[in-house]
Amino acid sequence: MVRSFQLTVVPGLLQTEDYAQAILRDAGTRVPDLEQTVAERLARAEILRREQDQCRLFAVIDEAVLRRPVGGAKVMADQLHAIVQACARRTSAWSWCRRRWVPTPG
Fold this sequence. Notes:
Strand order of the largest sheet: 1-2-3
Helix content: 40-55%
Distance between the termini: 27 Å
Shape: globular
Radius of gyration: 14 Å
Number of domains: 1
Strand content: 15-25%
Number of strands: 3
Structural class: alpha/beta
């Protein structure tokens, strides 16, 4: 089981190609490195889709990650759809930290 807690971006194992390209481009990654990094990231995500020895992912994602318009509306819509599909395969589960979350003592 892989556990991930993300405050700024969708976890790498759940990222679509377009989303990964957008965040890496915004971070200033050079084009040859960008293409290789995205390919490697997508290859790692295969552990959630393979038939045998599947890995499970549990991710906690800050609500701001889901609302932040990375790459534009279509990229975000496709990314959110990919998260839903991953959860439907039962290899992934996720929860989010609500924007109005109030910590409780102890």
